[in-house]
Design brief:
disordered N terminus, about 350 residues, alpha/beta, about 30% helix, globular, 16 strands, Ribose5P_isomerase_type_A, 5-stranded antiparallel beta sheet, 7-stranded mixed beta sheet, EC 5.3.1.6
């Protein structure tokens, strides 16, 4: 079963193109302090390690230090950065810097990490109010902060459904990613949970929906050798009894939210790995520092500045793609919120932006 299909034309997949990357030279006004509820850049010293674990630890440490307070109920995410955040949270609890924090694990792995770190745990219950949750994302869509989870780590004892329930009900959500995972056009696979009875019919319907732009493979258990598109004799079965289909896109996905809606409307689909939540913050670990983005404000801000700088010809997506510009966009909004901007020369004179 080599299920290869494409988007319907209304998703405009083939019209989504990217030009050559343009580098901007920025000098921001000194003394301006970025706000965490918009866009900010936290600079890193030149002597900091470039190793990915070091970058993720900085993201994890910042997330716990900034957003976790004593007395909170905290959703404990899954993945490498979340593991580091859980252990750092345990250290702060052990020395009394935080008190009375209760963790709600999103997976078996995060529950194990929390137990080792000494973080008190409760199981998720429907009526429970969760103050804050952090989690890893496998890949993230620029501007919207829509993301994909479950690409790498979903085995039989894990549950995308349980993880997404916690992410959906939390009051405040932070997703941690590296700059390589932060994309203007999301590529690769989306895990889709389907009923094990009749899974082939569901796979064929997904196949027809994305004809020409995606391959659909049933996920096999790790260590069972080459299983092929059908998953072989040992497909993954989640604890809810679902099979996992990996819908592998061969072209950039222009709109994750639209894909999520299409999948939600297919009979036999029990869930998928697409996260769409507002409000949501992203903590992006980059070589140059941590970039913190809030999806409740970035879209409006970038659209406004793009219309000024681009004189109507530059899209918000184009502007956002050059995320070296983000700190200055924030400073622009925070310092001059009452000023009506009309020309590009003024912006260049304030921020020394070289286009």
């Amino acid at each position: 079963m080599a299920i290869i299909h494409s988007f319907p034309s209304y998703l405009n997949l083939r019209s989504h193109t990217h030009g050559h990357s343009t580098h901007h030279r920025l000098t921001t006004i000194s003394g301006c302090k970025p706000k965490l509820n918009s866009i900010s850049l936290i600079a890193r010293s030149s002597s900091s390690s470039s190793h990915s674990n070091a970058l993720l630890f900085e993201a994890a440490k910042h997330t716990v230090d900034t957003y976790v307070e004593s007395g909170m109920v905290v959703g404990l995410g899954s993945g490498a950065a979340s593991c580091l955040a859980i252990h750092y949270l345990g250290q702060k609890l052990s020395v009394g810097q935080l008190k009375d924090v209760v963790g709600i694990p999103t997976s078996v792995g995060s529950a194990s990490d929390a137990a080792k770190a000494g973080v008190p745990l409760h199981q998720y219950q429907h009526s429970l109010q969760i103050d804050f949750t952090f989690n890893d994302a496998d890949i993230m869509e620029e501007v919207s902060l829509n993301a994909v989870i479950g690409r790498q780590r979903l085995e039989g004892d894990e549950s995308i459904i349980e993880e997404k329930k916690i992410l959906d009900v939390t009051k405040n959500l932070v997703l941690m990613v590296t700059e390589k995972q932060y994309k203007s056009g999301v590529e690769g696979s989306i895990p889709v949970l389907v009923n094990s009875v009749g899974w082939m019919e569901t796979a064929e319907e997904i196949d027809d929906l994305f004809v020409g732009d995606a391959e659909v493979w049933r996920r096999a258990c790790i260590g069972r050798g080459h299983a092929g598109p059908t998953g072989g004799d040992f497909p993954v079965v989640t604890r809810e009894g679902h099979n996992v289909l990996d819908v592998i896109f061969t072209s950039p996905i222009p709109n994750l939210a639209e894909v999520a809606k299409l999948l939600d409307n297919i009979d036999g689909v029990a869930g998928h790995g697409i996260i769409t939540k507002t409000p949501c913050r992203a903590v992006i670990a980059a070589q140059s520092g941590l970039c913190i983005i809030d999806n409740t404000t970035t879209t409006i801000l970038i659209q406004a500045v793009a219309s000024v700088v681009g004189n109507g010809s530059t899209t918000a997506s184009d502007m956002f793609h050059h995320h070296r510009l983000l700190p200055s966009l924030f400073f622009l909004s925070s310092l001059f919120s009452d000023v009506e901007f009309r020309d590009k020369d003024f912006l260049e004179s304030v921020f020394f932006v070289s286009w």
